[in-house]
Amino acid sequence: MSRYRPPRAAGTPLITPQGEARLRAELHELWHVRRPEVTRSVSEAAAQGDRSENAEYTYGKKMLREIDSRVRFLTKRLEKLKVVDSRPSDPDKVYFGAWVTVEDEDGVEARYRIVGPDELDLKQNLISIDSPLARALVGKGLDAEVRVQTPTGDKYWYIVAIAYP
């Protein structure tokens, strides 16, 4: 059996201004701070002599490969992304960038922001526009009922509030 895995789809090429700033800050940190530090430590380890049994050298080279890989990914991804920084023409409906408050069948409320797949962070209640819940919400207005198929069965949510930053 082969170890090959086809590359996964990059997702919707949309991003909020805050998400773009976060990705650019990560790219800057990797390229201008982390990479020079690791390069310096690899040079010091290489100066110690035999590289075949030098764990610091081997680990440093591995870290450089990981940093370079992430830098390449971020550079290519930032070129393809489209920053959405304007409000929609109809702010009474759910679109990209909206904060949406939903209520489930049990009366439990939750508030989510619909963002691009590169910004996904459930701890901050940021859900990807490619997620089933976000796809069901997009285009709907206040008091609309949305149905989402989940592994445990269909779930229903009601849109309670919509806000744009």
Give your account of this protein's structure.
This protein is α/β, with parallel strands linked by helices and 165 residues long. The chain has two domains: 14-83, Transcription elongation factor, GreA/GreB, N-terminal domain (Helix Hairpins, Orthogonal Bundle); 99-163, Transcription elongation factor, GreA/GreB, C-terminal domain (Chitinase A, domain 3, Roll), CATH 3.10.50.30. Helix content is 38%, strand content 22%. It contains three helices and seven strands. The protein has helices at 17-46, 55-80, 132-137, and strands at residues 14-15, 82-83, 99-104, 109-115, 126-128, 145-150, 153-163. β6 and β7 form a beta hairpin. The longest helix is centred in the N-terminal third of the chain and has 30 residues, at 17-46.
Keywords:
165 residues, alpha/beta, Helix Hairpins, Chitinase A, domain 3, two-stranded parallel sheet, 3 helices, 7 strands, 22% strand
Compile the SSE list and pairings.
Layout: E1 14-15, H1 17-46, H2 55-80, E2 82-83, E3 99-104, E4 109-115, E5 126-128, H3 132-137, E6 145-150, E7 153-163
Parallel strand pairs: 1-2, 4-5
Antiparallel strand pairs: 3-4, 3-7, 6-7
Helix pairs in contact: 1-2
Quick overview:
The chain is an alpha/beta fold and 165 residues long. It contains 3 helices and 7 strands; from the N terminus they run βααββββαββ.
